[in-house]
Amino acid sequence: MKISADFTVVPDDFAKAAPPEYRNGGIPVVSFPFYIDAIDPDAAYMHWAFTDPDSIPVCGFEWIHWTVANLPIDALMYDFNDSHALAIPPDFSRQMPSMIPEAVQGRNSSASKLLGRPADPAVTMRYNGPQPPDKDHDYYLHVWATKRPLAGLNQGFWLNEMLHVLRECGETPDQGGIFVTGRA
């Protein structure tokens, strides 16, 4: 599997410099577009995590920005005239619940009890764009594809739950990833 994007630095609309209409409670909530190519032809479901390993020295843990599980590949449009097999469009995180209700999104780090923020699911269980406080950070988008949906994951799952289910799903998931930079 190959993951790609039309950028190496997350564009302003999806990150720290997002305009007010792309924010919820000051947090960027419009997800960025990306592409998934060379997927195992037997795969039927996609899952991903977008995280910030560079946040560890800042807050003590890897910040989770977005997690998705059990997205049926057939629910996405293949454009055989396009150069990419699958395109995840901009703002997919906010559109997905009404477009593909069987897919689920997990909690991001904004849901942490340590932050004491209000538990607004539109913020805590969707995409949160990069907002590095100290310097540019490298973010990692990791995508997995499986033949069957991951059992037991519901809206608001935690990343560790998805990783446990992936490890014990009875198959070796197809996978790929990409690093992108978020500007401070």
TrEMBL record:
Pfam families: PBP (PF01161). InterPro entries: PEBP (IPR008914), PEBP-like_sf (IPR036610), YbhB_YbcL/LppC-like (IPR005247). Belongs to the UPF0098 family. It comes from the Bacteria. It comes from Bifidobacterium jacchi. This is YbhB/YbcL family Raf kinase inhibitor-like protein.
